[in-house]
Amino acid sequence: MSRRHSARPSSIADPAASRELNRRKFIGTCCAAVGTTGMLSALAQLRLIGALADTSGPHAAGTAPDFKALVCLFLAGGNDANNLIVPNDAAGYAAYATARGALALPQAPLLSLAPRTTDGRAWALHPALSEVQGLFGQGRCALLGNVGTLVVPVTKTQYNGRTVPLPPQLFSHNDQTVQWQSSVPDKPFQTGWGGRLADLTNAFNANNQISMSISLAGQNAFQVGRYVSQYAVGTGGAVRLSGTATGITTAAGVRTGAQNDLLAQQENNLFATAFAGITADAIGDSALLSGIISGTVPFTTTFPTSNLGQQLRMIARLIGARDQLGLKRQVFFARVSGWDLHDNQVDATDTTIGAHANLFRDISQSLKAFYDATVELGVADRVTTFTASDFGRTYNTNGRGSDHGWGSHHLIVGGAVKGGDLYGHMPNLTIGGPDDTGRGRWIPTTSVDEYNTTLALWFGVSPSNLPIVLPNVGRFHTTDLGFMNPG
Amino acid sequence: MRACAASDSDGRFDIANPEGALLQAALRSGSVFNFFEPAYVQPGALAAAGLVAPEFQILTGTSAISVPNNVYSLIFSNVNGVTLSFTDQLSLAQQPGPLVDRLNLLLCGGRMADLARTRIVAAQQALPAVTADLDRVRNAVYLVATTQPAAIQK
After folding, report:
1. How many CB atoms sit inside 10 A of residue B46's CB?
2. Which residue has the higher pLDDT, A250 or B70?
3. Are A172 and B31 within 8 A, CB to CB?
4. Which of A127, A128, A435, B48 is the most exposed place for a label (fewest CB within 10 A)?
5. pLDDT tens for residues A42-65?
6. Which residues 59-78 on chain A approach chain B with CB closer than 8 angstroms?
7. What is the rounded CA–CA span in Å between residue A445 and residue A145?
8. Is some CB atom of chain B closer than 8 A to the CB atom of A285?
């Protein structure tokens, strides 16, 4: 049933795969040689464009500060968005309750939505998302229906006939996670779209002290760039190196000096050079960040004590330190795990409580606190948070859980969001219906690429440069789904 | 640890929370596959050379500090009762050249670059005269274990 363990054979176990890797490596080398020149000259041009955009944009000198931050909140494991946005009209709810069985939420506690536009159906949020409902009502949160990985737009007939290419390894965690984060589902992974966005917009950061790509959840595919490296910090900020001292009168001072010299030594091995460079940078960056984070907290908003709450709190602190860090563009990655709920998604006697409700409550409270902190920092309309996840889940159940799906619904929060509305298209929620591949695995009606181009345009990427960040953009209906106000 | 004569007060060589400091722990990988992806590419010179570098996926701005800090605690104090007594190296504490050569053999498979050896020997010679033998050995082990010679084994 579950395909989460499906994967290409590892290179260790399979000699054919090892040959494949060598071939890929060979091709990669050639492509890198060809690609670098083109990319570098494009970047050189973009630096000029960036320098111009910096002062000639809508926020010219003397008005609002030119700063923007994009936060990717990844719901690792595959969120069951079928219980994020629930049908709330009589006919829709009745069909929902029948189809979802043991996972169906009772209608009374659902949090109703009043979107500005309607397709004739009424919708409501999961009862644990009261803060999200509030942000939606204030126009600070938008919902995007049925978005997922696509190589090209797909109809059910095309899906059944396999007459158009589909994303490889649908319904598989690691493949779909990487495809969501690369936005290039039809090619082997090279870079993430957040990394390419950073490569392109790093021109805005003329005097940056640390990387503009910061992860609160370790290394990830989203932020892998060709030029800009991601920098992972913990929820407590940067960790300092133990046992360091300055001067040469103590053993610690002698050791610190020698360690720094060793890490700066020229190596004739690329891996040794990379190791030394990363370590030396980390030591320097941690000293810098520790100095900044040890200062006064620039906001009074209280965040949830959950790991996600603390991740977003540290992101708010790093946004607060943007001037000291010399950053006018920042891309953050946060992650909350535990969404792969094949079982125990809901409590046995009450579907409004249980593991899924706890996760929703966490993201609802954490997103609200984060939004409030950006208001305090005076950058609410300069910071946009969006959710992403491996995939949606099946509409029918697996007892008290659900299995891996495809199209899913997502949240976008921030002061620049044209909130209070439902974007994209909610699927026809009929198992076996025109949007279903079987079991309520919805065929996405909006591609991940269209979701991402809308965010990239707001972040400052010009329409002509969109293909650098999102190369498959031309295959889909639009580059702007309309949920962002122009920046 | 074997090279440095590790012993433990209760016989258990336990490392608490390795997934925190080392980003790896038995049976705790983030996906069912591994701690890093086989196709991970490290930006910079490695990416330009078309090389994949899977292990570099867990060498982050955080782990590049937390891993040496873990090594530091193990060498200079003890971690959960695990103590290193350096019986193999103590007799060489006052002889920087032979000490570094011995560590090169034990920790680096004898592949330490001459430049690195020269710098570590110089550091050993520059230690304050009052430095105890045990601390001299600890100093050399830390420098070897946290820099390129031991980290990148060719």
Report:
1. 18
2. A250
3. no
4. B48
5. 343 333 334 333 333 333 333 334
6. none
7. 8
8. yes
Instruction: Report the pLDDT value the prediction gives residue A372, as an integer from 0 to 100.
Output: 98
* Pairing verdict, β A329-337 and A68-76: parallel
Distance CA A285, CA A281 (A): 6
Q: What is the pLDDT of residue B45?
A: 85
How far apart CA B93 and CA B103 sit, in angstroms, is 12
Which of A336, A19, A228, A415 is CA-nearest to residue B61?
A228
Using a CB-CB cut-off of 8 Å, the residues of chain B touching A174 are 31-33, 37
Interacting residues of A247 by C-beta distance below 8 A, sequence separation 6+: A253
Query: Environment class of residue B88 by beta-carbon count within 10 Å: exposed (0-12), middle (13-18) or buried (19+)?
Result: middle
User: In sequence order, what DSSP letters do the residues of B132-148 get, joined into one string?
Assistant: -HHHHHHHHHHHHHHSH
Question: How confident is residue A210, by pLDDT bands cut at 50, 70 and 90?
Answer: confident
pLDDT over 70 for what percent of chain A? 87
Q: Of chain A residues 297-356, which have a CB less than 8 A from chain B?
A: 337
Structure-token pair, residue A157: 């007939």
Residue A232's SS3 state is strand
- The number of residues making up chain B comes to 154
| pLDDT top residue among A99 and A247 | A99
The domain spans of chain B are 86-154
The tally of CA atoms less than 13 A away on the side-chain side of residue A313 is 19
The reply to whether the predicted model has a pTM over 0.90 is no
Mutate to test the interface with A, among B65, B73, B104, B121 (most CBs of A within 10 A): B65
By Cβ distance, the residue of A225, A242, A262 closest to B43 is: A225
A296: left (phi over 0), alpha (psi -120 to 50) or beta: beta
Q: Which of A219, A220, A269 best tests the B interface by mutation, with the highest count of B CBs <10 A? A: A219
Within 13 A of A249's CA, how many CA atoms are on the CB side?
A: 0
Q: How far apart are CA A112 and CA A123, in angstroms?
A: 6
- Distance between B94 CA and the closest CA of chain A, angstroms: 14
Closest chain A residue to the Cα of B32, Cα to Cα: A5
- pLDDT at residue B16, rounded to an integer: 67
**Each residue's pLDDT tens digit, A242-291:** 899 988 899 999 999 999 999 998 877 888 888 888 899 888 888 888 88
